[in-house]
Each structure stands twice: as C-alpha cells, then as structure tokens.
Design a protein that fits this description.
alpha/beta; 5-stranded parallel β-sheet; 25% helix; 25 strands; FAD/NAD(P)-binding domain; 12 helices; homodimer
Chain lengths: 478, 478
Amino acid sequence: MEGPFVVVGGDAAGLSAASKFKREDADRDVIVFERGRWVSYAHCGTPYFVKGEVEALTDLLSLSPDEIEDRGIDLRREHEVIGISPDERTVTVLGPDGEAFDQPYGDLLVATGGRAVSKPIPGTDLDGAFTLHGLDSAANVRALLAEPDAFSVESLGGDGYVDEAAVARYGAMAPPETVAIVGGGYVGIEMAEAFSAWDLDVHLFQRAEHVLPPFGEAVAERVEPHLEERGVTLHLGTEVAELRGERGRVSALACSDGTELAVDAALVGIGIRPNVELVAETGVELGESGAIAVDEYGRTSVDRVYAAGDCAEMPHVVTGENAWVPLGLTANRAGRAIGETVAGTPTPVGGVAGTAVLKAFDLECGRVGITDLDRAREAGFDPVAETVTAGSRSGYYPGAADTTVRLVADRGTGRLLGGSIVGEDRAAVRIDTVATALEGEMTVEQVERLDLAYAPPFSPVWDPVLVAAKVLGGRLPS
Amino acid sequence: MEGPFVVVGGDAAGLSAASKFKREDADRDVIVFERGRWVSYAHCGTPYFVKGEVEALTDLLSLSPDEIEDRGIDLRREHEVIGISPDERTVTVLGPDGEAFDQPYGDLLVATGGRAVSKPIPGTDLDGAFTLHGLDSAANVRALLAEPDAFSVESLGGDGYVDEAAVARYGAMAPPETVAIVGGGYVGIEMAEAFSAWDLDVHLFQRAEHVLPPFGEAVAERVEPHLEERGVTLHLGTEVAELRGERGRVSALACSDGTELAVDAALVGIGIRPNVELVAETGVELGESGAIAVDEYGRTSVDRVYAAGDCAEMPHVVTGENAWVPLGLTANRAGRAIGETVAGTPTPVGGVAGTAVLKAFDLECGRVGITDLDRAREAGFDPVAETVTAGSRSGYYPGAADTTVRLVADRGTGRLLGGSIVGEDRAAVRIDTVATALEGEMTVEQVERLDLAYAPPFSPVWDPVLVAAKVLGGRLPS
C-alpha cells in the first residue's frame, strides 16, 4: 500500500495540493505539516490589514483549520519538517512538544514558501523594525500603530492564532510618528499607503534610481510623483546602511552617503528568498535562481518529491525556461495541479508569465512577461519597445484618465514579449489582455487586431493596449 | 493617372480609411462625401449626451471638419452619393444645391453605415417618438427633456451642425413625465439610465422574455432586477403594437395583448439595419446577413469597390465566416486597413469577435464570441456552457462584488467559443481576456492556465474568468 501524500507547508501551494488531491482520491491520506500557527492566509492582504481596511487577521484566512479538516486533510500546525530521507521515503518532523518523529510518505510536496530578507541591513532586530512576511509581523505592526490606551489583543481579530505576548508588547509602545520604508518594491509601495492612512510621516528609501524595478521606468515615472503628492518623501538612489536604535527601539536610519534620518519605526521590504534549506543534501536540485528546479508537472529531481509555490521555479510562458517568480495565483495553480498529478491524473503546473498588479494610492500598476530589454536579450530576443499614453475611456465621458502602456516585442518575429501599464482608471485589469496574448504567443500584429471592448464608460474605441500595439507595430519590419 | 480615393460616409470607417490613406499616400486625393452635416461622431456616446453627462454635442466629435481638412482630406458634407457606376468608375453625387454631378474614382469605399429601424411599429413619426441614431435625434430628445424656459439651442453645444429649427421646436414642448422605451437592447438599456437621470417614469418594453439577447440569460437575469431596483418598470415578453398620438404628439403605447399605457414620449430601439441601397444594381454582392459581403481586405465583389463599417460584414474570429456585427472598433479598424490597402500596402481588416460591453446603471455587462448554443451548433460546434458567480476582488477587500461569468466551449476540441460577464466591479473590462483568448483560438485548458493579475484591490487569486474556465474544464472530456 502507498504511503500518504505528505505536504510541507500549509499555505497557497500546499493546501491547494492537499485539497485537490483529497477531492480526487478520497481513500488515500494527505497530511499537511505547517511549522507555524497560521495556515491558508493571504500574504497579499497584509498591507490592507495594517492600513485598517481589512479589520481582522482572520479575515485574511482563505480556509480555517476546521474547514481544512472538513476536507479530509490531516492538518498538523506547529509541526516543522526538519529533514527528508528520500531513500526511506520519510520526513522527520518536530512536533509542538519538541519531540521529533519520522513520517513515511508515498509522495511528498515541498511547499515551504519564501521569507523576507533583511540582510545586509543591520538593526532589523530592533523594536519598531519589521519585515512584512506573514501574519505575525502584520499583527505586530498594527499593534504598534494603535494608541496604547485604545489597543487590545482582541482588536486584531486573530483569536487563537496571534502571538499574544508579542502583540501585547507592541500594543503598549508609543505609536511612531515617522516611519522609514526600506525598499521600493511591492511591499514598500503598499506599506507607504498603509502608513499614510495612519497619518505617519512616511519616508521611502530605494537603492535604485526608481521604485518598482519589475514594472520598469514608464510605470515608476508616474508612481513616483503620485507618491510624493500623497505626502511620501522619496529617497531614490539612496542606499540604507543600517538602522540605529536607542534603548532597543529603532531611532534612526543611516544611509551609505552618511546622511541620517530620525525615525521611530522602519519597515524593510527588500525582497524575499525561497526557503530551500530543507532540501539541502536530499538530492533535490536547485535551479539557477536558487529556488527548487521542477519539471512541467512540478516534479523535482528526486523521485516522488514535488515542489511548488514560493520555494520553487516554474516554466516561464515567454522564454519556456524555468524562472522564479513567487506570486499567489501560480502557487495555487501549481499546488492544485500537483494534487491532481499525485492523485493519478498527470496535470501540468502551467506557466508563469510574471503577471503582477499593484495599487499605489490611486494609481493602478500592472506588468507581465519580459519588460526589461537586457533580460529579453539574455533570453535570445531582439527587443523593441514603445510607450504610449492614451485615455481609459472615451475622452468626452467623465472619469477618463491617462493610461500609460509599454509593450515589448521581438523585432525579428514580431512576437509580444511583455508589457506594463499604469493609470488611475481600470488600468490594472487591462494587463490581463497582455497576459492572455503572451500565453497565446501572439505577435504584435495579432494584438493590434484584437476585438477589445468599447463603450464610453469603460474604454475608448481604441483601448490603450491597442494604441500601444499600433505604435509598436509601426516600429516592426512588416 | 489613378483617380482619387472616394469614400461614401464620413463616420468611423470612412474617416479612418481616409485618414490612414492620406498619411500613407500624400500625393493622391481622397474625397469623403457625407450626406449629413455631422461627421466623425461617437454614436455610442449619444445616450450619455441625452443623460447630460456629456455636455455638448460637439464633445462627441472625434474630429472636427477643420481637423479633417487639415489632414488633407477633401470633405464634402451635405453631399449624398446616389449612384455608383462601376464600369465608368464614377459615383453620382447630389450636392447641397440640389444639383447632381459625377465624380470619378480610382478606388471607392462604401461606408454608408446603418440606420435604426422602427418597423413594424406605427406611430414613430409622432412628436415625442424617437429612434436614437445619430446626433440629430439625440439633440431632439435632449431638447424635449429640457424645461422650455430653461432651453436654448446653444445649450446643446451643437454650433453650426445642429438642426436649429427641429431642436427649437422640441425645446418649446412640455417635457415628458412618462417615457416608453421599445426594445431592451443596448440602446434601450442605456436610454433607461439616461431618462431616469431626468426623473422620468421609465417603462421598458421587450418582446423577448429577457433584455439584452446578445448577452444571454445569465447577464439578463442580473440586469433585470437591477433595472427594477433603479425604478425602471419592465414589460418583458410584451410586444408593442403601436404608438398612439393626440394632436400629433405621442400619448400612449398599445401592446399586442390589448393593454395600453399613457406615455408622453417614446424611444424605439429595436435594432439597426445596414444601409445597402446604394449598391443595389451595382453588382456589389450582399452576404447572408443582408450587409455587404467583403473579403479579408474589405473588398466587395466589384473591382476597386470596398466596404466597411455598419454596412458591411466582417470575418468572425470564431467561425471564420462572414458576419454582420456593427460595432465601433471594428468599423474603425476595417476603415484603417482599407486606407492602407488602397494606399498600396494590402492589410487585412481583421476579424470581429462581437465584443460588446454595456453599462446598465451600476452593472457592467460584457459579451464576446458565440454565446448562444443554437448559433454554436449552426456553426458546426458541439457547445457546452457553464456559468459561475465569483468575487471581483479578494473577499476580505472592500468593494468585492459578485461577478457572473458564462463561458461556452466546443466539447470535442475544448476550444473556447465565447463568453459573457456581468457585475458591478470592473466586470466589463474582463471580457477582454475572453476576447483575446478567442483571437488566440485557445482551449478552455489554456484559459485555465492563464496567468492573470492578482492583487486584493483588483482581483481575487482566481479571477472570475479563471473560475469559470475551471468549472467548464471539468465538464469537458480530458
């Protein structure tokens, strides 16, 4: 008899796999080990919890542990998998009582996720300094933002999950007046909005010359003035050297150029890394990115061991090669496919196009595919790009807003490689047109011909994506 | 030497062709004959002008006559082309002075558009009864809605174009209190919103059992209660027999079932027909739809005669066969392509997917491709459909709204054939994902794998289109 399907990690990829598996193969056991208390939570919602738009931590749970158990999944929270023995087909698990035990598996999914990095910035262990990854840090940040006399553990709505001692300690501290955000990526921009909602003086430090590098300059050049209009002080091209503290709490941020800013809170969002330590010395190979290499079914180099989610690579829709693009939908989809495969129906995990959208106050930003020209050249393309700004609705209809679209294509074949978009009116969702065109391996000429929706309240006759395709098409050899 | 490029009709298709032609071939003349005074105007904006959201008639012009002339186009308004002689390569034109003359052409584009039909409903010639097609009727409706003592011809902003006698006459009439809309298609729904903004008692009559037949029942079943919530009285499955009048003004609407409703205005929006009378006896063939048949370059069956816009068919993206789908973007695109072709670079007019979006008060509706199962069978498919309702954003994020998506696919091949969508939050633009997938001839399996945008403020992890594809995929043989 086959052993159970064992899943390491109880978030998007892991629980999607376990749920799908159990629906397909009700007779075989599936055990999910999660080292923390939280399971199945929405990372991407944490800035909005901090902001206060999402009231309770538990609102961010897609499924409660009870709902997971109701699906027939054997969920073990506070169980850390600390070793894998592929030859014996067992994992070694450290339980909440501190005792380790071996668990046999028939198939194994490594869905250990990623973690926020803070290196090489010293001082992130000070009180008032945070990375935002997971609900515990979100709870701590919001506890700090609350006035101590208005704070209660219950106000966070994390009943039974939240680290009560930690949030109580933060809740008792004086709220900050000035906060430094280190890193101008997704988390940095979303947290700038969140902190501004608490009326903090917000400073955003970005080592590069522009925020949001994956979205490219066309997007950054509209986001940056918008952030400043909203009161965020930008420090671009500025490397943060360290966070400094007084009596254990962050009190200042020092830059490599010697300048210093007095702050009483800091959020470091300079990237995440895949959690791959567990597979070291198991024979599970990593890809060039440092994340776990997998084939089109999510299988690692070791028999019966799969990987998915933020710890694993996926095939890129445009290059066809594996890439590490840790995002929510693809984690869910890969998990779901692996659940189906393990249950007996081989199902490809699908590709990742790197589709990402972001709210920056009132601006909507989107990006997909390969938008960086150097990256396109590395992948063997001869890229050509065009940027246009066009209206989001018929010009005479109220609410029309300038929408900037940048498209990148391969000169020789005319194939669309990627795109980005920014604007205030329904800009983000329009990136799906580009994402769909990429999956269809369309040329710019095909995109020009798309019969997209037109009605004055929603779109002009020529959607901004079509305008961009027309202009880019004019640059391509016919 | 070649004769000029002559264009019949000065709206979307005609002026797109003339503009593109002149940019590509500056040396050859292009003459545009338009029988009316208005040129290059946005049909789709007229309900919003009547509503009052668009202030001036001239706001609805994409280009003014001066701008058109500046492009080097010889624009002749109030010139009606009344005959074509393909053998002589001339058109016969009736000028504003009532004199007819012959104009030679090298190439000819028939872009005569369509017209609203009112048959078989008697009484549409009464004062207070309208069809909405073109800016003159829109001007008359808004003049009627205004209080006579507040009305002035100038308030319509149609300086130099508007039929001053007609609008002055309507402006002097007492505004209506109760209006009947005959027909529950695009125009009917949009005008229900427009009339409601003027606080009229609005009654909408639809012969079929549901409004918006091209969008299908899944959409209609959400639109109908929404209209009623907004105070529109629906009379579904009700055939209107005639409009009745007193002293020349509409006073009642009579139904085939014998019921009668007292009204003091009526708008008939029961469809449009292509204007093809001009090509009768020219050898230009019509398609099955009754519109002008064209090839992939917009060429008719007669040498050097092209057709585009609401008077012509276009190849349908899904069936590959010609279809008559009179919509704005495809008219513009076909015109532009023909302009390029006539200038020497053969350019396909592209396909029509029948993409349409509509605002019904706060609901956004969209449809694309083949959504009717009978129609799909006629086209040789074995259709299977699924309808789902899913959130427009992460459930915990404010503003998430139920979004209903219906997708239709071919059972044998899994190919996506069409879809419709309805919801209050960014629903319309999402139909572009389906439109793009249709152009890419994607299967449902491919749609399931699309890497669409996810961020809590804009979309849930699984976009409603993906949810629908997952459910429909489960119905298809794997």
